[in-house]
Amino acid sequence: MTLSTSTGRVDDPDAQPARVDGSTTPADHFELYGLDYRCSASGAVASFNDPARAAESLASGEHSAIVGALAFDTEAPSALTAPAHIRFDVPTSSRAAAVANIPVPNIPVPNAVGSTNAPGPVAEARVVAAEPLREEHRDRVAAAVAVLADSTNPLAKVVLARKLLLDTSPRLTPESFMAALAALNPHSGIFRTELTPAGDAHHGRHLVGASPEVLIRRRGRQVSAHPLAGSTPRHHDPIVDAERAATLNSSAKDLGEHRFVVDALRSALAPLCTRLDVPDAPSIVGTSSMWHLGTPIVGELADPSTTALDLAIAVHPTPAVCGTPTAAAREYILATEGDRGFYGGAVGWCVGNLSTDERSGALRGADGITPGDGEWLVAIRCAEIDSRTGTLATWAGGGIVADSDPDAEVAETTAKLRTVLRALGADEI
Ligand SMILES: C=C(O[C@H]1C=CC=C(C(=O)O)[C@@H]1O)C(=O)O
């Protein structure tokens, strides 16, 4: 069941070209739990730190699948591999049940705020540093608001983030951290991927997270995206919780902040699609910690040779993680925060040419996959973990516009950080 021969750099001396089956494989270095399937990949017949080069290797048939992560900064190295083995499975029953129960604002959410069936902490975790401290983040937001309110400055939106560093004991593994995130976040895409392909500085590091945001998904000719922007923290009291969602849904500030992301996706996808359906207004999307404004976008691909990876490269980074205009926002972020690593990047998979046999068995319980299909999540609500030391870095950010309130923005990042901190049983300092 060989899918391609490889001419790329061989990281795993025992690696064979990609297989889509259930046979015994080396340990998985990539896993993504979508809402209706699970993708796992192991072994690496080649690795790429340049996404364009990885996309070319799919287009040429050199490799039959690419998995991994794109960095936030498109100039920074990515961490992509052509795996030796890739598998697709149907979801576990608990995730399938959760999907059938997507919360609405006036229904108390099972397994969410105030969850009773959360697993215990996977390791003892302790926040050891905050970069910047909360007060400094507030000052950064206030400074950005002044820039955004200046009509002579082209910057209209910028996403500012803050980072926490944690120690764990006993040493946390990416697998156990991922399992804890999966148990607590039934409505998010859960992922882990090794970052070593990005270069020596990333050796032994993994990106693990529970993202509610689909950057891009391709199934056959159908392209979809589910951008999120505009947020408010959930509340354990269902009445207050519902009020917060309703307030968010009518907040001019948040609707404006959201529109930047939808407009950017429309501009990037319209030239690649024969049809693009973009609802006029967003709807409310719930995670275990947050309410967001989200817009489900669906289109039909003009050229079937455009892969999910091509699409991810075309749309990343959106104003959900960067800003508007993109180049000015990126520059502002790099000058303010420095390197963000893979936070704000994208994590996903993409397949190239699969034989008919391989395709029909690949996505059991779903519609089957076709050449070029894949899914990329926005890398938020995530942490980079050093598997050799068990130390972690996690980030949370928020979109800043001219009428943002700095205190509310700090509170928003505090709430967003809970996705990772709850899975670790840790508190912010
Ligand atoms: C940048 C993050 O969230 C994005 C996704 C949803 C809502 C967002 C917001 O309201 O600002 C952000 O655009 C993050 O979680 O770190």
UniProtKB/TrEMBL annotation:
- Region annotation Disordered: where it falls in the sequence: 1-25
Which Pfam family, just one, is annotated for this protein? Chorismate_bind
* Name of the protein: Isochorismate synthase
- Which segments constitute the Chorismate-utilising enzyme C-terminal domain? 135-416
Segments forming a coiled coil: none
Note the InterPro entries from the entry. ADC_synthase (IPR005801), Chorismate_C (IPR015890)
On the tree of life, the source organism's domain of life is: Bacteria
